Amino acid sequence: MAEGEDQAQGAAGEAQQSPRLSILTQYVKDMSFENPKAPQGLQTAAQRPQIEIKVDAGARPIGEGQYEVALQLNIEAKSAEATVFLLELAYGGVFVLANIPDDSLQPLLLIECPRLLFPFARRIVADTTRDGGFPPLMIDPIDFVTLYRRKIQEAQSQAQAAEGDPNLGRA
Fold it and tell me: Which helix (H) or strand (E) holds 63?
């Protein structure tokens, strides 16, 4: 019986040490929709607007093993004449991470967590544009790995620029 208990405790210990990611909550942190040409702009069937989408993801610790991850979407639709609509969305989530190696923490927070939030933010964008009088904007899937790599490269470039310029950062 003691051998069986040791095996059970060993299995429980392994389960406690395995990496874990949980979502506590998700929410709209900030949202803005501007429809400057309404209602006249909605009545004319103009050509399809040019849509520019900017995406960013950030994370910050908020407690023991808890992190807030925010997905920022800035969308601007323009026609030849003017802005058709603007939409800004900050969609956040609180994640609990346990037993994550330090070298895996940042990629997990800036790649996997935004990937989990994205479908919900995408739905909010589609619903908001539809409710604004436009066809629902269905954002294509986002490559968060490329976004993460770009963010790392920018940080390295800024660090190198700061090292090269002794006056940079001085007031």
Answer: strand 50-63
For the chain, give the percent of residues with pLDDT over 90: 62
Domains, the chain: 19-162 (3.10.420.10)
DSSP string over 67-117: EEEEEEEEEEEE-SSSEEEEEEEEEEEEEEEES--HHHHHHIIIIIHHHHH
Cα–Cα dist 171/168, whole Å: 9
pLDDT digits (tens, 9 = 90+) for 65-120: 999 999 999 999 998 778 899 999 999 999 999 999 989 999 999 999 999 999 99
Structure tokens at 94: 């609180």
Which tokens in the block code for residue 113? 């967590």
In which region does residue 56 sit, left (phi positive, over 0), alpha (psi from -120 to 50) or beta (all else)? Answer: beta
Contact between 69 and 96 under an 8 Å Cβ cutoff? The reply is no
Which ranges of the chain does DSSP label H, i.e. alpha helix?
Answer: 2-17, 40-43, 102-107, 113-131, 144-164
pTM above 0.85, yes or no: no
